[in-house]
Amino acid sequence: MHKPMINARAQQTERNQRRHQHAKKPNFDVGDYVLRSRVDSKHQDKLLVTWIGPYQITRADSHSFTVRHLVTGEGTDVHSSRLKFYADSSLQISEEIREHVAAQGQILAINELLDYTWNSVKKGYDVLVSWKGLEPIEDSNETAKSLAKGVPALLRQFAERCDDTCFERHVIALTKQRSTADAHRPIDMFHAPRPRNSGNGKAILPQRKFAQDEDLDI
């Protein structure tokens, strides 16, 4: 992997660790007309995006929306932080958005676990994650430890497919530690029950905030 790409991923991971404590609820509804931000490039801690559209929201999930382009009819899934209400004057206006998602405290749904690497500094594995509604340039490395807390089943399935005994044993150990810790934790130390809905549940984690196993289609 080229060094600039490695540095970009490292910077993305660092930004993911700086999150607000409370997530913001999306304020869009089915039928709304919106613009979508297209990420054109990435430079240091900035995303260079262009607002394109107009689109109409055709489906609303917990933290992402399905939108349809009014001209082409093309549909796509977009994270709520990548949308804004439609205004003619905003079309095709490029702008730099610093900390585009990282500073917004958004809850993200995992699209896929892509790859893994050993982090010699942290003495653990990092897993490359793609996020539902975000673009490939925004894939980020999350620690296996944090994924084991929020999506243990998804992480175990990924480890089994990787055909790497060391990595799989590491993941099994992490998920067992999590199960043991939960079994011995007093009930009053648990967070309030998570609301069930047709989308994804919420998990407040040290890095990305992402939907938990039981609400993912795995």
From TrEMBL:
Residues 1-27 are annotated as: Disordered. SUPFAM superfamilies: Chromo domain-like. InterPro entries: Chromo-like_dom_sf. It comes from the Eukaryota. This is Chromo domain-containing protein.
